[in-house]
Amino acid sequence: MAESPPDLDALSLDDLKKLLVEAFEEHARLKAEVAALREENARLKGLPGKPRLKPSGMEKQTERAEVKRRRRQKRRGAKGLRQKVTERQELKMKVPAGSRFKGYQDIVVQELRVSRAVILYRRERWQLPDGSTVVAPLPSGIEGHFGPELRRFVLAQYHQGQTTVPRLVTLLGELGIEISKRQLIRLLNDGKERFVAEAEAVLQAGLETAGWVTVDDTGARHAASNQYCTHIGDSRFAWFATRPSKSRLNFLELLQAGERAYKLNAAALAYMRERGLSQKLLAALGKADELGFRDEAAWQGFAAACGIRATSWAANDPLRIATEGVLWGALSDRRLVEDTVIVSDGAGQFAVGDHARCWIHMERQVYALDTFTEADRSTKETIRSRIWQLYADLKAWQGKPSAQQRRNLADRFDDIFASETGFVTLDRLLASFHANRADFLRVLDHPDIPLHTNGSENDIRCQVTRRKVSGGSQSKAGRDVRDAMLGLMKTCRKLKLSFWDYLGHRLGVPDAPCVPALPDLLRQAAPP
Fold it and tell me: Is residue 38 a part of any domain in this protein?
């Protein structure tokens, strides 16, 4: 006989919490049990179970011999201490009479000193001859009741150390700092507009000077809703933004680098024509001279006057295509991505401008393809082997491009992806890749671009970790500051700068090393 449910109204808050925890644990147990039963059922029926995909080894296995040799050499030997000695202490000991002094045996020890300081600033107050009162200014970097060193520690622990707010409150309390959770959140979010502005300037400088960028996105939680965090970056910088949508319209807005410009020009009309906007609407837009719109409302009003309306068929919505076009026109006018190749995993929202697709993601789809006969397995492995060899030869060609080899590589691509193997699902997959031939072979026109998006996938892991550790953000300021700080942290690492020193200089910590503006450093590190 089933046990009757408890009377929830009669339970205390602690009992309700305990009951909720037990329900979550039971749900997790049942979910795991159902997954195990499905696996067993598939095994008994002879069906393939849940695929266990391993990371593609195509990139490492196709490295040149000298690169592998250099990596092996870097791992050898102990890492010596390169820091200067800041303090010396002589350790003495009592020895028996008649002993002989034989000098010193040195050992260098690194130590960290963390101490609390509560400072009372007695500020002089003077009344001037005109009757006004002046007060002696506080030292540089002090804002409110928390000093710059404490604020640097909080930002570094939260963003770089991925510490949660409750744990950080506990840690500071154990160090003797009296601070509440609300005060800590204010330290993390309030007054950080300069960091957000510098992050946007980093994106603008990066897009202006980059020959290529890799892009990726991942799920994110904000204001109790599912959103998406997009990453844009190259070997010099990283930038993140969390928004409710992952559409191409959203991506074009992010590429604006903090601005929201709409421009109707030749580039905008070309974009609309390529995306299939009707000739009638193109003619109506083409009658206007080159126009710029101050905001989205102004553009929407102009579009409505030209007869452009949103439709329920999102795949070919005229208003969406036209809006994407004027955003692209603004990007072209500012020349932000004029000569920049955008390398993505093949997601449709990133297919703008000069677009290249990731070979690792392509090979992963071939690897994940289910096979049911020995012939299919053999065919799939043969195709994978040929893809790996072509990938290795493309990497070698990047080091020493030649026109003859370029034609040979393009022919080999056609030979692999336009072939018919008799394995129907594999043939369909290869045909879909061949339909995007220009994106996969973009490297033949731009030998400097990467063949994969590993850089973006590595960078965006910090956002995934933050999501798993702390959940989502609640306020817009908290979301923007989190994105900006993680991007600035990654950019500092790529530029071989200390994020600790960066925070110290920006927050006015006394004697902190000077760290120039990151956009200026990006422009200095731009490829020739």
Answer: no
